[in-house]
Amino acid sequence: MFKKLLIANRGEIAVRILRACRDLGIIGVAVYSEVDRAALHVRLADEAYPIGPAPSRESYLRIDKVIDVARRAGCDAVHPGYGFLAENSELPRACADAGLGFVGPSADAMERLGSKTAARQLAYRAGVPTVPGVREPIPELEQACKIASDIGFPILLKAVAGGGGKGMRLVSSADELPSAWRDAGSEALNAFGDGRLYIEKYLERPRHIEIQLFADAHGNAIYLGERECSVQRRHQKVIEEAPSPFMTPELRRNMGEAAVLLGREAGYTNAGTAEFLVDAKRNFYFLEVNTRLQVEHPVTEAVTGLDLVKLQLQIAAGERLTIKQSDVSLRGHAMECRIYAEDPENQFFPSPGRISFWRAAHGPGIRLDEGVYSGWTVPGDYDPLLAKLIAWGADRNETIARLRRALGELQVVGIRSNMSLFQKILADAEFTNGVIYTRWLDERLASLLDKDAQITASSDESIEAEAASIAAAVWQAGRSRSLEGPQSQPMSRWREDGRREQMTRIPER
Amino acid sequence: MFKKLLIANRGEIAVRILRACRDLGIIGVAVYSEVDRAALHVRLADEAYPIGPAPSRESYLRIDKVIDVARRAGCDAVHPGYGFLAENSELPRACADAGLGFVGPSADAMERLGSKTAARQLAYRAGVPTVPGVREPIPELEQACKIASDIGFPILLKAVAGGGGKGMRLVSSADELPSAWRDAGSEALNAFGDGRLYIEKYLERPRHIEIQLFADAHGNAIYLGERECSVQRRHQKVIEEAPSPFMTPELRRNMGEAAVLLGREAGYTNAGTAEFLVDAKRNFYFLEVNTRLQVEHPVTEAVTGLDLVKLQLQIAAGERLTIKQSDVSLRGHAMECRIYAEDPENQFFPSPGRISFWRAAHGPGIRLDEGVYSGWTVPGDYDPLLAKLIAWGADRNETIARLRRALGELQVVGIRSNMSLFQKILADAEFTNGVIYTRWLDERLASLLDKDAQITASSDESIEAEAASIAAAVWQAGRSRSLEGPQSQPMSRWREDGRREQMTRIPER
Amino acid sequence: MKSEVRIGGRVRKLDIERTGPKQFAVVCGTGDKIDGNVDVDVFEVAPNAYSIIINGRAFEAIVMAAAEGVVVRCNGHDFHATLADPRAWRGGRGAVFGAEGKQKVMAPMPGKVVRVLVNAGDKVAGNQGLVVVEAMKMQNEIRAPNAGTIERIFVKEGQTVATGELLVTIE
Amino acid sequence: MKSEVRIGGRVRKLDIERTGPKQFAVVCGTGDKIDGNVDVDVFEVAPNAYSIIINGRAFEAIVMAAAEGVVVRCNGHDFHATLADPRAWRGGRGAVFGAEGKQKVMAPMPGKVVRVLVNAGDKVAGNQGLVVVEAMKMQNEIRAPNAGTIERIFVKEGQTVATGELLVTIE
C-alpha cells in the first residue's frame, strides 16, 4: 500500500479521501489555493501545501504544480478525486513520468473510455446499445445545425470532456441552437479546458441509471450494483439513490455485465461508472463512462458495505480485488442529497460567502460528507457543493423519512442553500412513488417552488409564519440593541414603552 | 401507531427518540427542567413543556409531572428512554391508569425481571446459570459482612434498582466493606431513589456480553445478537461493540436462546437486554435484565440494520414483530465510544460547563448520537454523557480505524472530555487483539494514562509539542490583544519589538 | 421593544422583552392565532438561530438578511419577512413597506460578467435575460423582473461584480 | 508579540506576528526542531481553535484554560502548557513559572459536598481522600496531592461549591 498520498482536489471529496487515508494509515497530503488556507481539507490533512491563486486554472488544474508538490513532499501516489484533473489523461502520464502512482485508470484506458465519443464507438463494437447521436466532436456551429436537424430535435449538446452537467444544453429547436452552442462551449472550456461538443438524441422520460465498476490490474472486474440519478436540474444530479426503485435483478445483471464488458474491452482498471439511460420498457442505452470516483459513491458504499476509496487505493497499489462478484450483496436502500450553496427561491443563483453557523445532522442512518464548517467562507471560485447528506434505511420509505429528518436538522446560516428544495422533492408523491426521469425535476420545479401550491403549513396565516415573524422581530431587537449599545437610552425607553403598552392594553376580542 | 409521544428524558437519548418520532411521523413531545430550556432535545422537539427545577428528583424523576404533561399535551404514549424513570414500574402503572401507552414492558414483567434478585431467582428456575451470590436485598451492613465472607472476597456490591455502574462497588477485603457499603448505598439512593444493595461473587477476568431481546404482545420473541461491553471503568461501560470478538455462532445461539427463555418466563414484552458474564472457557452466567433500551443500542442497529426504537414503538402500539429469528443477520462490525464530560487526566472528575465550540465527526461508517451543540452549557445536574460516537466497518479493524479517525475529528472546546482516553485504548494492542475483560481498563488505566509510557509523538520534544506551544502562544497573543483593545499601545509596541528582533537576529547554528 | 413584521399579506405587531441574556418573551398583537395572553418564549441558541416555544409548540428558526427584509427558515419552511422601522410605528405613523419604483437589477452574488445580452434603450419582456454572471463555475443569467425599457447598463463583459452591485436599470 | 511556553521540561521562545484578521506568522527560537528559518502559518479557524502549518506539516490545535496554564489538544494529544508573562521576558528577567507553596486543594468542578473525610490537624498521605463532591450524578473523591497535615477545611457537608473553590489547605 502507498505510504503517502497527494490529494489533487479540494472540498468534500478531498476530505473524503483524507478520511480514507486516516483509516488506512496513509499520510494524506492536501494542496490548497490562496482562498483555501483555512478549508476543511487543509485542517484535516497530515500535510498541506499552497498551490497558487484562487482561479482553478492557476492552482487545482495545474498538473506541474501538483507533481512538484507530490515530489517535494515525498508522496508515492496522487488521487485526483472528481472534477478538476480527474479525467485529464495528462495527469496519469505526468504521474508515470515522475514515478508516482495514480489512483485511477491508465492514461490509455482513460482516453479510450473518457472521451464520450470514443467510449460510444467502443460500446458499438462491443454490442452495447447507445443513444443515437454523433460520436465525434463537432468543429463548427454549422455542422451542429445540420446534424441536429438530421437526428431531429430535441437534442442534447454535450461537452466531450464533460461531466456533472457542465457544458451541457438541451436544445428543443433550431432557433435555440446558436446561443446554446456558445454557452455550452464556453462553460466546457472554463470547466475542463476543452470546449469541444457533440450531439445526442434526447429520449422521452428516460431514467439515468449507472453501474459502479471496479477492475484490478490482474484481470478481475466486478460491478457493485447500480445508482439511479434521475432527479436532475438542468442535467446536474440533485438526488441519487441505490438501488434504483425501477430495477429488477435481471436488468441489474444485464447492465452490470455490459459495464464489465466495456471495462474489459478498454483494458480499464480502478473505479469507473458506466452511465445508461433506461426507458420505460427497461431498454438501456449506454451514455458514457466516468473514469473516476463519482460524487454519489456513498450510496453504493451504504448498500454494499464496501469502502470505495479504499478499494481504489488497493487497486492502484497493485493489489488484487479481494471480493468476487458473488460476494457483492445489497442491503437496504440509500439516498444522497447534494447540498449546494445556491438559492432555489431565486433562480438557483450561487451563494458563496461566510457560513456564520453550520449545524450538521446526525443520528441513525445518517452520513454526512462535508467540505465546510461553522465560520468557513465558501469561495466563489469553485463548485457550490457544500456537503452530501446520505441516508440509509431498511427500505426506500425509511430512507426518505430519515433523509427528511436530517434535512430538518441541518442548518446553514449566512449563505443560502438548496435544502428547502429537497424537503419539497422528498415530500412529492411522484418522487416517493419512484416515478422519476431525467427531466422530472425540470418539469416539476415550477410547481414545487410555487408558493401558492405549497402546503398550508407555510402560508402566511400558519403558526410557522407566526413563529417566523417572532424570530424576525427578536432578530431585529438584537440588532437594534447591538447598534445602540447594551445599556443605551433608546432601548430602555422602548422597553418601558412596551411594558406600559402591555399593561394598558384592552383585550379586543 | 401512536400519534403523539411524550419522551420522559433528556440528553442524547431524548434526541434519539425524537429522531425516531420524526421518521415515523409521530409528534414528539419533550419535557425539560429549568436548566434545559435550550437543550438540544427541546430545540428538536415538536412540542416542549417545562417540568420543574434542575434537580432530577424535582423534574425528570417526577412521575406525576410527566403524566400531567402527557395528558395536557394530548399524548397517547410515554417513552422513558434509559435512566431516570426507565426501570421504575410505577411509571407504566401510572401510564395505564391515565390511559397512556408505555414504551416498555408491563409493570409486572418489569418487576419480575427488573429487580436483579427477582431476575436471578427466575433464571434459577429456568435453568439459566447465574453468578454465585445472594438474591435478596441485604438490609444491614452486618449481614453484608457475613454474606461476603461466606462467598469469599472479592465480591461486588450492587444496587437492587441499579444500572450503569451506579451504586456498584468492588470490594476486595472485609476492611473495605463499610465505606463501600455507605458510598454505594448513597449513590444508589441518589440515582434511583432506592438505596438497597445485594452481593455477588466477583469472577476473574470475565467478559461482559449481553443479548438484545425483543418480544411482542403476541408471543413472538427474538434476539438480535450480542454486544460486548467488557471495556468498563469502575463498572461503567466505556466502549461497546457488536459482534463480540470472542463470540462463536454456537455460543451466540445458546446465549440468545437463554435470553429468549428468560423473556418468555417473565411474560416480557418490548426491548430488553440480558446481561451475562462469560468466562475464558465460554461458560456464561446470567447477571440481570435491563428492562429498557440500552445506551449502546446503536451498535446492534449498525450490524442488524434494524431501528430498535422503531421496533419498540411498533411493539408498544400492539403491532406484531415483522421479523422472525431467521431474518436477523449480522453484517460487519460496530463499536461505540461514550463521550463523557470528564477529565481523564484528572481522576475523571466531571466537567460541566459551556461548550464554546463543538465540531462533530462525519464521513463513511460514522454515526453520532449527540445531546449537545456549540454554545450549549452542560448542566452539572445530570449524567455527563455528551454524545455517543459509533463506527461501523466491514470488520473489527476497519471499525477501529474509522473510530480513531472520527475521534481525531471530534472537537470539544470549553469543557474537558474523555476523548484522549479512547485514542489510547483503541491504539492498545490488547484491545485491538480483543483480549478484554471487565476489569481490563481499570487494570490498564494507569499505564494508558502514564505520560512516560506514551508514544514519543506526545513527548515534549515532539513536533506536536512544538505545534502545541505555538497554539498556546497565539492563543495568549489573542487574549492579550482583546484585554488591551485592538489598537492599543502595548500590543503595537510588542509587535514592533518583534519585528526588530526578527530583523537583527543572527542565526546561531 | 415593539416591532412590526410582514410575511406575505399579513402584518403582525409584536412586543419583545428580554428575560435573560439570550432569552426573550414576546407578546403578539390581538387578532393573531396566538394572542397577547399566550406565552411565547424565545431563546437565542446561536447567532441568528432561535428556539421558540409557543404554548408548548416548539420551533427552530434561523434569520438571514436578504435584499429586502429577511428570510426566516422556520421548521423547514422559508418565509420572506419585511420589518418596519419600530420608530415609525411608535410614532403612530403606521408601517411603511417600500413602494416599487424604477427596476434596479443587482448582482445576486459575486462573480464575473461573461456576457451582456441587452443594450440601453432595448425593450425587454419580464424574465428576459439581461446579463450572464459566472460564479462558482456556473453561468447565471440575470433576468428582468418585469417588462420595460433598459435605461442604463452599469457593467461590461469581463468585469467582476460584488453582491448587490447595480447591473442594469429598467424604466 | 513575544511569548514563552513551557511543555514538560521544555521551554520555547516564540515570536508571533499577525499577518491577517485570523492569521499569524510565528518565529520559533533557535535550538527548536523548527528554527527561525522555517515558516509557521497559524490560522484561527474558530475561537481557540487553530490550524497550524509548519513547513507543510498540518496540525489542528485547540487551547483551553486550565487551573495553571492551558491544556492544548494537538492532533489528538493533550499537552499541558504554562505561559510566562511576555512582559517579564521582554524585560530580560526570564520566565517565572510559579513555585510550589502550601497545598491548596480546590474543587475541580461545581457540585455538592457530600462527605468531608478529614479533620483539621489530621496527617494525610499523598492521594488520600479528603472530600467527596457529587457532580453529574457521580461521587468524586478529591484527594491530597502530597502528604502533609490538614491546616484548614473550608467546606462542610451539604454545601455546594463552584469550580476552583478552596476546599482544604494542607501544610
Blueprint of the fold:
The complex is a heterotetramer, with 2 copies of chain A (509 residues) and 2 copies of chain C (171 residues).
Chain A: E1 4-7, H1 11-24, E2 27-33, H2 40-43, E3 47-52, H3 63-73, E4 77-79, H4 90-97, E5 101-102, H5 107-114, H6 116-126, H7 141-151, E6 155-159, E7 169-171, H8 177-192, E8 197-201, E9 207-215, E10 221-233, E11 236-242, H9 249-265, E12 270-278, E13 284-290, H10 297-304, H11 308-316, E14 333-340, E15 342-343, E16 349-350, E17 353-354, E18 357-359, E19 366-370, E20 377-378, E21 385-393, H12 396-409, E22 411-413, H13 419-426, H14 429-432, H15 440-449, H16 463-484, H17 489-504
Parallel strand pairs in A: 1-2, 1-4, 2-3, 4-5
Antiparallel strand pairs in A: 6-7, 6-8, 9-10, 9-12, 10-11, 11-14, 12-13, 14-21, 15-16, 17-20, 18-22, 19-21
Chain C: E1 2-7, E2 10-18, E3 23-28, E4 40-46, E5 49-54, E6 57-65, E7 70-74, E8 77-84, H1 86-90, E9 103-106, E10 111-116, E11 123-124, E12 129-135, E13 138-143, E14 148-153, E15 160-161, E16 166-170
Antiparallel strand pairs in C: 1-2, 1-8, 2-3, 3-4, 4-5, 5-6, 6-7, 7-8, 9-16, 10-12, 10-15, 11-14, 12-13, 14-16
How would you concisely characterize the structure shown here?
The complex is a heterotetramer, with 2 copies of chain A (509 residues) and 2 copies of chain C (171 residues). With 509 residues, chain A is α+β, with helices and mostly antiparallel strands. Chain A contains 17 helices and 22 strands.
Helix/strand/pairing category of chain A: alpha+beta
The SS-based structural class of chain C is mainly beta
Number of strands of chain C: 16
End-to-end separation of chain A: 77 Å
> How helical, in percent, are the residues of chain C?
under 10%
Low-confidence stretches of chain A: 452-457, 482-509
Oligomeric state of the chains in view: heterotetramer
**Alpha carbon gyration radius of chain A:** 25 Å
Strand arrangement in the largest pleated sheet of chain A: 13-12-9-10-11-14-21-19
Mean pLDDT of chain A: 90
* Helical proportion of chain A, percent range: 25-40%
Strand order of the largest sheet of chain C: 1-2-3-4-5-6-7-8
Number of helices of chain A: 17
| Rg of Cα set of chain C | 21 Å
Total helices of chain C: the number is 1
Order of helices and strands of chain C: EEEEEEEEHEEEEEEEE
**Total DSSP E strands of chain A:** 22
